Amino acid sequence: MTNEEAMAWVIRTRDPAFTDWDGFTAWLERDPANAQAYDVLMAADADLDAIIPPEPVAMPVAANDVGVPQRRPLRWIGGGAIAAALVAAVSVGMMNRADIYTVTTRPGETRSIALDDGTRIEVNGGTRLRLDRNDTRFAALDSGEAAFTVRHDASDPFRVTVGDAVFEDAGTVFNIVHTPGAVRIGVSEGEVIYNPGAEAISLPAGRALADDAQGLRVMDIAPAAVASWRQGRLVYANAAVSDISDDIGRSLGIALRTTPGARAMRFTGTIRLDKDPARFFAGAAPLMGLSAVRQGDTWLLKEGDGPQS
Amino acid sequence: MAGYPNGKQFQHWTPTGMATGLSAIFMANRAALLRFLRARGAGENAEDLLQDMWMKLEAKDLGPVSDPVPYLYRMANNLMLDRYRSAIRRERREQDWAEGAGGVMADPTDDVPVDERMILAQRLDEARAVLRDLGPRVELIFRRFRIEGVGQKVIAEELGVSLTTVEKDLQKAYRAMLTLKQKLDTE
């Protein structure tokens, strides 16, 4: 049985506009068991993420460019009438609202956003993303990381602005990382065009593009490795530890520094994410040939063969 | 019955740094925050947690916060949630270790086993059915609130329904989803 009072407080305190902390304190003080009931339900609430199905969307996925291996249908297909009703309700509710809004996540926090047009954006931690209520085909990734599952419409392509660069979809699942020094994109399905108005570099599934201190370059990437953070894993093929440490910091919500020696190293393999940094580094650091040391609130990744701490 | 011990000598510390108004607001609300942490189940650790909060505030060097008091309470509440979560995690970890499960895998081809995936798909189907039975409005409100993090008042305005309707719909959805969660956990 669910404790109804505790459940009501879970809902209330989860509201971003909640302010009645005195009332909450009074309820907690009424019975010492209330705090425990609240904790249990808040934990259950957090676990709901794993069982809430992705939003159903009525329209089918666009037929895609030929030559893309093993296209599987996107996972939210099959909503039916309810889906149509949902889409309609959201559209009506939002049509007359002001345009640009910002979605931010704290380090370690992830969010999933379903746009009216069927596009889904999964936002990794430490990210700032701008969206337009009047134009669901626009997104600007100001910083951080996001995975886009785009419903393709050739007459109205989805565009992501990243700093000065523009990525335009051609029916696509792709992941973008934007850090102060670099932009990296990996494409797992369909195709993305980089800066359609200028370089117009085509990135089909299995290709990645990086623009950092070493300049602009295109490379191969395993489609399964793209946006693997969504499955709690980070998959790399010969990746620089400097990039990996950014990914780790963003995904776990920790401050992470690397020694110059560690930054120069490269890694191939899969790292399973774990929200407990001590446990995570105990496994992940030796795997990369590194060791991790806790320094107050931050972690330092350095070359291995030092004493394990 | 108050769930916290009274009459304990408070140990004070001197605020340093943190030039923002948040420090003054923190100090002004110190007693109330302490009371909240105790009611929240912190017991004798309430003072320490308050000190943690203080140090976090100092380290973050926050700019002006629009609603400082609710912000501080939310921070305190999050600290308690983290504490609870790490306690649960510790328990689970000890269990995992007892069962010989490791934290890291080195083989990139090692994926989620098929039977686990089937269970996951089945769970999603069950949840989909539960949400469908609640009706489109309840499902929409639940998703706006729970997945997209939109406040109840904003949702009510968007849909042109009363705040009470949104509250009731959310309770309905939560009741159903938490019941499903309990059922899945005991399966």
UniProtKB/TrEMBL annotation, chain B:
Keywords: Sigma factor, Transcription, Transcription regulation. The keyword Signal does not apply. Residues 126-177 form the RNA polymerase sigma factor 70 region 4 type domain. SUPFAM superfamilies: Sigma2 domain of RNA polymerase sigma factors, Sigma3 and sigma4 domains of RNA polymerase sigma factors. Transmembrane segments: none annotated. InterPro entries: RNA_pol_sigma-70-like (IPR039425), RNA_pol_sigma-70_dom (IPR014284), RNA_pol_sigma70_r2 (IPR007627), RNA_pol_sigma70_r4_t2 (IPR013249), RNA_pol_sigma_r2 (IPR013325), RNA_pol_sigma_r3/r4-like (IPR013324), WH-like_DNA-bd_sf (IPR036388). Residues 26-87 form the RNA polymerase sigma-70 region domain. Belongs to the sigma-70 factor family. ECF subfamily. NCBIfam families: sigma70-ECF. This is RNA polymerase sigma-70 factor (ECF subfamily). It comes from Sphingobium xenophagum.
